[in-house]
């Protein structure tokens, strides 16, 4: 029992500690990157249970702000190979277990 | 019954009168041709036209009655009703006008009809076809003639085909042209990655560690700035921007590689020569060989210093150390120890400054990062190349037993039983001292004092022991305790580490100072010595007299055995020449005597062979080191006899030299 409690505590700690947004790879210009990152954080927090809605929100907002057409993938475990327009890619971790990949390609 | 005959009636006989003439009445038009042939495009041949229109029109007359229900009829009725409301005079006028119009129309029509009829009759009744199109425009004209009057109600201007003109025009229009273009597609790149839960976790942990490190380093800097950036989520690049030390050190490695590349490109032909060039003309030169000059190593600050010592690093075969100082007693200044790499001829890899000139240096073979240096002021020091400091890690002081004269040679020994490195030094004060690195100190032990055999008669008949000045020494490769010392007086002492008072043997070697002594790397008994008395001598340590003597007509600065052959050695003389000898080929003359240093007043001071590559480096008095490549003649291996394998290895070298020595030795000894 104690162990499981500790584990839970650890998990909570880890989630709490590791929930800051961590950009893994990005070649966006600074302002765009910050805006996109904050948008992702907002969307993921708002639709914590539904990745699709979060992705939808991110995609639509990015389309409006930076032009079509954007693609967004949110998940906890996946592999990908994408072609993106130069200077329009953001790949980040958030919330300790979510990975978000946002890129533009028309 | 009186027939009334007209006067011009034809007179016929009764028979003729009774004759019956048959006349058949058909509906056929006798004027219509019955054999018209038309070309049928469908069947591509001339075909007889079966049926011809048999109608013959005798009179055609256009009427002017319009049905009441037609458009025109309705219009007219409306008009007449409108006009009926106006003054009856007008109506009367109108009706009369109408009548006139109608009459005119009628006359017009009849005229037209008459014309048409006239045409028809004139040309024969066969042209019915032409009549049909003629009628159509006439009807149209009539219809048109009636149209203009209705709009012009007040004026009732007559408009008929004679004063109605149709005119049409069209504005010019610009022809259309199609033009298309496509913008370049936006530049795109591929990106791929894999993400798992553990991957995310690892990334976060790493990031947290970095953040903690950065926090510790940045404690002195303002906290607020750091916090803002933390909130944004750190990226690796942003951490670099904060810490100013890291980028420079990261660049240093890249800069080093870039420097090497630039040097390689600049000296590309030399590098190619170093690696691949084999002088083909050696075949024609008989036994003579040449030295091909390769790189020149020079450092600005050493222009006034002479090269006093050269040594190759045992581990990194492209790295060599050079000691810079001054041989002149009067002009003593600072000194330097530089380490050069063959890969970068333009700048030394390591630079160490010292107060007094460095006279000798040696690399520790077991710890190739340790380098012992002896100075003109009698001190010895040990430098550790791995550490970034430019100061020696150990240095002797007056208390710790430094020499009272310049240290001419240092040599490392094998680690002693406590695994402490130790080295020997020989100096003009006549002491040979063994230094041991114990913990953090240099501990010295006097091994031998070079006492002269004859003492000097001092006052009161005291025998004063004078000490000779040791200039060079060398330790035997196999026999640990055995070593040779050369002195300024020209004597060579054979000594043992265990006996501190006495020498094992003395050789009356030269008339002047013995500059260098070196044991043969292969043969256990042979050593070579050179001196300022212009000679180079090769000895067998069991025999008092030299085996070979070479007179080079000039003071010899240094001599060195080659590492690949027991019979090859090189000597440099003060006139700037380098001589290479091979005893197995020519016992009396050098295979190559080449001027190495071209400037006048420049003396070549030292020479060393590279342990691996066939090059030698020569130092001179201007602080320049020249590297030279040995041509193939200078490094000949024994020829292979057919059927026999050539043995390689130290035994072969020993045998080679033994053969030569046995020729020279007197038959009595041995």
TrEMBL record, chain A:
Main location: cytoplasm
Keywords from the UniProt entry: Cell projection, Cilium, Cytoplasm, Cytoskeleton, Dynein, Microtubule, Motor protein
InterPro entries, alphabetized: DLC_sf, Dynein_light_chain_typ-1/2
Gene Ontology CC, one term: microtubule
GO biological process entries: microtubule-based process
Subcellular location(s) of the protein: Cytoplasm, Cytoskeleton, Cilium axoneme
Annotated Gene3D superfamilies: Protein Inhibitor Of Neuronal Nitric Oxide Synthase (3.30.740.10)
Entry keyword Cytoplasm: yes
Lineage top rank: taxon: Eukaryota
Protein family: Belongs to the dynein light chain family.
Protein's job: Force generating protein of respiratory cilia. Produces force towards the minus ends of microtubules. Dynein has ATPase activity.
Quaternary context: Consists of at least two heavy chains and a number of intermediate and light chains.
Name listed for the protein in its UniProt record: Dynein light chain
From TrEMBL, chain B:
Gene3D superfamilies assigned: YVTN repeat-like/Quinoprotein amine dehydrogenase
UniProt-annotated location(s): Cytoplasm, Cytoskeleton, Cilium axoneme
Bias-annotated ranges (Basic and acidic residues): 214-232
Gene Ontology cellular component list: microtubule; outer dynein arm
Comp. bias (Acidic residues): 112-127
Entry keyword annotation includes Cytoplasm: yes
Gene Ontology BP annotations: cilium movement; determination of left/right symmetry; outer dynein arm assembly
WD repeat locations: 507-540
Principal place of residence: cytoplasm
Highest taxon of source: Eukaryota
Region of interest (Disordered), ranges: 63-156, 214-238
Pfam families xref list: WD40
Keyword annotations from UniProtKB, A to Z: Cell projection, Cytoplasm, Cytoskeleton, Dynein, Microtubule, Motor protein, Repeat, WD repeat
InterPro entries listed in its UniProt record: Dynein_IC (IPR050687), WD40/YVTN_repeat-like_dom_sf (IPR015943), WD40_repeat_dom_sf (IPR036322), WD40_rpt (IPR001680)
SUPFAM superfamilies: WD40 repeat-like (SSF50978)
Keyword Cytoplasm: yes
GO molecular function terms noted in the UniProt entry: dynein heavy chain binding; dynein light chain binding
Record note on quaternary structure: Consists of at least two heavy chains and a number of intermediate and light chains. Interacts with BICD2. Interacts with CFAP45 and CFAP52. Interacts with CFAP53.
Function field: Part of the dynein complex of respiratory cilia.
Family under the similarity heading: Belongs to the dynein intermediate chain family.
Name assigned to this protein: Dynein axonemal intermediate chain 1
Gene (UniProt): Dnai1
